[in-house]
Design a protein that fits this description.
It contains ten helices and no strands. With 261 residues, it is an all-alpha fold. It comes from Desulfoluna butyratoxydans. Keywords: Membrane, Transmembrane, Transmembrane helix.
Length: 261
């Protein structure tokens, strides 16, 4: 499955699929244990109990590590939204420091810029189109600011140039963190492998006892599936149940609309 297909998979489907796969691994382990039951030795069951405990501890550690990574990235995305709103707001205010002709055009471009990015972030759709339009607006903004600076090379125009650079830099920073900084595929592979081995070994241990009761084990895969799904949701900022708040950008848009009335 490529990244695009993975992103398109509904989060509740991922939860159900994860829980079913864990239960299937447990059931496979039970069948193996039942076949080995007649040949089991007491030491075998004891060693398996130690192994299951170690695998459960390892699974908990990898889940905690992955969750921490996803949560940290989520916090960075929220911080970047606030920083970008501040950078755009500063640039919008500094347009009053340059020539009126250029300043009015820059204000219009910045308002359009916020509108494009806000709609894409709230809908979670057409992200690539929004990024492309944002880059086009960067070129138009720089053209206006550079022309104003060449016509009147003062401290005020320098401040406007600096503010425009910060807007462009924040775009790249936000796009990189939101679209490219994800949990590495190797971590997902390790998590899947440890999860499967844990449930398989647990099932084998239960099968060896001859007291297979799947209903007593169901809560364990359901609980782990919740945690894994939560990590997946945090790793998908454009979709899912947990999204990055855009209130600072919404407030900025409202202030811009009020200023133009």
């Amino acid at each position: 499955m490529n990244p695009g297909q993975f992103e398109a998979l509904p989060i509740h489907w991922f939860y159900v699929g994860t829980a079913i796969l864990m239960i299937l691994c447990y059931e496979l382990g039970c069948q193996i244990g039942l076949r080995l039951q007649s040949r089991q030795e007491e030491e075998t069951q004891t060693s398996l109990g130690t192994l299951v405990g170690g695998l459960l501890g390892m699974l908990a550690f990898v889940l905690a590590f992955t969750f921490s990574m996803a949560l940290s990235q989520h916090d960075h995305r929220k911080q970047n939204v606030l920083e970008e709103a501040n950078a755009i707001g500063t640039a919008y205010l500094r347009t009053d420091l340059i020539d009126t002709r250029h300043g009015m055009e820059v204000k219009r471009l910045l308002k359009n810029y916020v509108d494009i990015r806000l709609k894409a972030a709230l809908s979670g759709k057409d992200i690539d189109i929004a990024v492309k339009k944002s880059v086009e607006i960067h070129d138009l903004l720089w053209e206006q600011v550079a022309e104003a600076a060449l016509e009147a090379p003062t401290t005020n125009t320098s401040l406007m140039v600096q503010a425009t650079n910060e807007v462009i830099d924040m775009h790249e920073k936000r796009v990189t963190v939101a679209l490219h900084n994800r949990i590495p595929r190797s971590v997902w592979v390790a998590l899947a492998a440890i999860t499967a081995l844990t449930m398989l070994t647990l099932g084998t241990q239960i099968g060896l006892t001859g007291k297979r009761r799947i209903i007593t084990v169901v809560p364990l895969p359901l609980a782990f599936a919740v945690l894994i799904t939560l990590v997946v949701d945090l790793n998908r900022p454009q979709s899912g149940l947990i999204t990055v708040g855009q209130q600072s950008m919404v407030t900025l848009m409202e202030n811009m609309e009020q200023a133009t009335e």
